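Hi W., the alpha-D-glucopyranose complex you wanted:
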Amino acid sequence: MGKGSCVTLLLFIGLVSSVYSYDLYKDPSQDVEARVQDLLSRMTLAEKVGQMTQIERGVSNNSVVKDLFIGSVLSGGGSVPDAGNTAEAWQDLVDRLQNDALSTRLGIPMIYGIDAVHGHNNVFGATIFPHNVGLGCTRDPDLVKRIGVATALEVRATGIPYVFAPCIATCRDPRWGRCYESYSESTEVVTSLTDIILGLQGEPANKTAGFPFVADSSKVAACAKHFVGDGGTTNGINENNTVIDYKGLVDIHMAPYFDSIAKGVSTVMISYTSWNGMKMHANKFLVTQVLKYNLKFKGFVISDWEGIDRITSPAGANYTFSIESSINAGLDMIMVPNNYPQFINGLTDLVKGGYINMHRIDDAVTRILRVKFAMGLFEKPLADRSYSKHLGSEEHRSLAREAVRKSLVLLKNGKEAGKPLLPLSKTAAKIIVAGSHANDLGRQCGGWTITWQGGNGTTTKGTTILDAIKGAVSPTTQIVYEPYPQPGFAQSQGADFAIVVVGEPPYAETFGDNLNLTIPEAGIPTIQNVCGEVRCLVILVSGRPLVVEPYLPVMDAFVAAWLPGSEGAGVSDVIFGDYDFVGTLARTWFKSVDQLPMNVGDEKYDPLFPFGYGLKMGTPNSSGGSINFMRRWRLLDISCWAVPLIIHMLKL
Ligand code: GLC
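Structure:
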């Protein structure tokens, strides 16, 4: 071919390619891994570092997402759009940030993350499901999966595609402020309830795509947290040290990650805690060797909030070391979340200086891009506003009400054999409803509700336990509501019985650490003032078992309601007999905090109520409910607690 014709040919190819520039990574028909590698090959260091950076909504204004190629934005607890806490305001916020990301040279979508840990709990009007401590008592993976489906729809209703859930901690000490975020002290119970991942993300399609779940805009990317050993710290001290051998770490705390990975979990969040003195955020053996290589986790590993800062003490004392040790340990995305200039500059300098090699950066970005491609974020980056209708829908509230019913645990029913108090009569002439938690939606929802710590009062939409009781009884029944009854009040009313609802105020994380676990505030005097004067059912609204043994004798009946969330009618459904109790303890109920930690299977096991315990009501339902009542012990549960108890008694 002559010189002239070569030039002509090159000019022709150049023309064609410029007119029709084919970017493989933009082609959804291509394999995920091929798209990842094509895009990765085009990225600059600045674009790669940007993908590894997650910033908080509060610092995402102006054009930082565009200018610094930010790969992810989050809302911390309570961090809502400036325009208000509505579905539309959230959709507008996420879309604004997304359009910034899409306007970059390569148009890589950012992924917005939020803590939807018991429904879409940051958003006003969202359905608030029972916290995990109650769901563990249901022993119902299908229920929890359905909650995942509903939660994903409500999160997508706000344009968000990523949730920092489920927490799959195995809480081994109820003094831990986050114990209510754990399904159980039992690894087996926690593992079984990782089915929520299937609800959140969708069913695995196949194992070849590197990521088994199918792109579906009604689903969200999930996050198994906090890897690993978050629920096993000494005395339950939050963010502290988990002292245990490797076998114990694997058997008790790591096992739920096996199932989470098998179910296709997209991301794993690292725990603030240390394992035998080694900070998890700097633990290369557990993060890279175990999680990524041994367990073959293909998604991305994200830090906790300022998690790398806390590698040093005081936090942030040597931020460059924090960046180097966490990234080299195998973390892929850093929840900075505010001081992103220092993170971006620090990481960039460490790569340029050869302290962090480009292979590590490419591994991190590969994993981040893999999740974004696999979940379809490149194809559907913006909010689908047709999902707005799902936020707080009646269908989801009905599901939450079912979850409340199944999470309740009946621990006492009658002071004398054959004389149960429950089911309560719906046609009683007069009922006293007392206690700080009877008419308080915020208290029945607990922490991580609307705000990080949660709050008292009408913080969102829902039904209080008092309102539910009012809706359940006959029109002729008089209800006397007194949150803080004084001595003599109950007796003066001439009521048929009283319902006393007391418990813990909302809290989250370290604010919930508690060494004495007594019923706080006016709970104890309320129990004593009412139950000493009239037949009473006590309902405890708490994130964990509390000290109740001294007060049990005065109670006619006692129910653990945990943190039921927005649908208080789930409580009235059961105590008035429309449904029977099915819940059984997923945590050992201790007699005294001096016994802690004490978990099922321990050699020294002397609980007030053992793991697996839960009564059913003993009389036929008098209100035409849907289930006949039989008093029966559940064989499965009885073996969980009766065997240890018998062994213990034989040893005495
Ligand atoms: C918190 C929690 C973590 C949460 C994250 C973002 O400190 O430890 O569970 O997902 O920060 O809110």
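The longest strand covers residues 497-503.

W.
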